[in-house]
Amino acid sequence: MLKRKLLTAFITSILSIILISLFTPIDGFFGQVDNYWKGVLHSFVIFPVYIIPCVFIYGLPISLLVGAVTNKMEAGQFQYSIIGHVFFGILPFFILWFFIFYSVGIALLFCIIDHLLSRKGHISTDI
């Protein structure tokens, strides 16, 4: 399970950086259309500094906790996993309220990628 969660965190980090950089580039809103791609390129350098540590330091342990709780359930594991990930994605609202959409989106992305990887079964759950 730990290997799958680490792979999930890595994939989530990469996809989050790409999606957030494309949808909200740093300079894209303030410049002309020519500066949009320059802002996207700057975003690819700046956003990983924040996204990768947050996913690995906060998201990975939370996902392990949610996974440990939902694995004991017989029915509705995926639904409760989504609820758990969204709940812990909302918790940073009290610290950084303006990042709520990013944190919930990344939490949902983490949950969905983890579910897809667990259904494939290609990754061993042994530690």
Order of helices and strands: HHHH
Major beta sheet summary: none
Q: What is the first-to-last residue Cα distance?
A: 7 Å
Total E-strand runs: 0
| Overall average residue pLDDT | 83
Number of helices: 4
> What structural category characterises the helix and strand content?
mainly alpha
Q: How many structural domains in the coordinates?
A: 1
Helix content: over 70%
Strand content: under 5%
Low-confidence parts, pLDDT < 50 over ≥5 residues? Answer: none
- Outline type: elongated
Radius of gyration: 16 Å
Keywords: Membrane, Plasmid, Transmembrane, Transmembrane helix
Tell me about this structure.
With 127 residues, this protein is mainly α. Helices cover 75% and strands 0% of the residues. It contains four helices and no strands. Helix 1 runs antiparallel to helix 2 (34-71), helix 1 crosses helix 4 and helix 3 (77-90) runs antiparallel to helix 4.
Helix and strand arrangement:
Blueprint: H1 2-23, H2 34-71, H3 77-90, H4 100-120
Keywords:
0% strand, 127 residues, mainly alpha, single chain, elongated
Q: Could you give a quick summary of the protein structure above?
A:
With 127 residues, this protein is mostly helical. It has helices at 2-23, 34-71, 77-90, 100-120.
